[in-house]
Design goal:
Number of helices: 17
Oligomer: single chain
Mean pLDDT: 75
Low-confidence stretches: 1-12, 421-503
Order of helices and strands: HHHHHHHHHHHHHHHHH
Strand content: under 5%
Largest sheet: none
Shape: globular
Distance between the termini: 27 Å
Length: 503
Amino acid sequence: MTGDVTVPERVGTAGGLRAYPSFLRLWAGQASGAIGDQVLPVAMSLYVLHHGGGAGAVGEVLAGRAAALVVCLLAGGVIADRMRRTRVLIGADCFRAVVLVAAGLALPRLALGVLPLVTALVGAGEALSRPASRSLLPALLPDALLERGNALVAAAQRGSAVLGALVGVGAVTLIGVRPALFVTAGVFAVGALMVRGVPDAGPRAAAQRAGVVRDALAGLRAVRRRGWVMAVMGTVCLHLFAGSATALTLLPVVARRDFGGDLAYGLVLAAMGAGALPAIALAGRWRPQARGAVSLLALSGYALVPLSLAGPLPLPGVIGCFAWGGFVVELSFVYWISALQRAFPDEVLGKVFALDQLGAYALLPVGYVLVGPVVAVVGAAGTLIGGAVVVAVSSVVCLAVPGVARFADPTPLGPADAAGAPAGPADTAGAPAGPADTDPAFSIPADADGAPCGPVVADPVSCGPAVADGVPAGPGSAGPVGLVPADPHDPGPASTSPPRPAG
């Protein structure tokens, strides 16, 4: 990593998201994958219950996926920054499709104890795809459309989650688990086909020459330099460990015991996905100054998810609480992902997203495995109430960390700090790299004259990350079609046009 790399400038919203067909293809591929990601855990959980397993066995199946995410996410982030991200996405989708076909063929002969391995393999493919997809998106959209683009991706994922939950329950009920696995494999194959049309400039040669360990450490340094990022990652980790693990493990058990069976299980999961949709629409349009405060206060309301099962509430009340949980999670998620995309330069972005997911899922496998033993000691209600308390308290405490309230650095970091490289002379002297961007919630390094770092070019065919008229263009592009440049870090020849003022 070098110390002179800056976050590329992205401006312009002409034509909205429809002007960026490459982004729309990525969006469609992610929507397909979201269906598969939801069908598999639902189908496997119900299969375990139908074959004599209890809450502990369900927790082990869900823990398989979570453990794979923890183990493989950092590797996925390093790979996403060293290879073409579209190739990573296609490979991950094809790998998951093959695993599911093999599992479907072998399922009648598989013991329940082997099923966590199936979910772990599929989770490994997911761990490869997540950093690649999220770090590719900023190269396809201008800065001003990041919230809207992330909201649309989240909408597709949540809408697909609703469909996936219902398909999973319906497939198990009507045609069995094996056909559900085959259908899910086909869904992943469709996702791979959609991503094939997305252009991708690939990594910098310097990134490919750097050692893998050194590359991974650069991502760790970049995150460590921002205390607010580490604080939010830790808080989300506690939410998944104490709130999600307990609620999702005990939900199928409570549904069968108190609400009449598997249909209630599917309806509650679908409600969480449906509740996220209005939050996505809101986050795509509403840009408050204190995005972090809005997000963390909203996330404290996720405590209602495990609390609703502690009684439990009547089925409509549980559905409403899970819908609210989906709302608050997705509202904060859109702001959080957009903040990371702005805060970190492209060459570490894949690793940052990998570390974000790794931090979130670090304790989730432990949470799934511990649900059964904890329930045996304090009961299901005590376990769920304890999880709710952890969620609410940790959300409020996190707001005390500087930078969290606005999801931004309290003081602007220099380019070397942003990239995770060792600080240069300006950094050691304590001088900021440049004035902050006009959006007070986020800062983009600028030069001494107040212009954004990096040349601004006027030729839309040869331009790099800095663009003409706010429209990203790629090689051979003739207009505002969201193609990526040949090298997203090489802005091409210096422009002869005068620099524009910041903002």
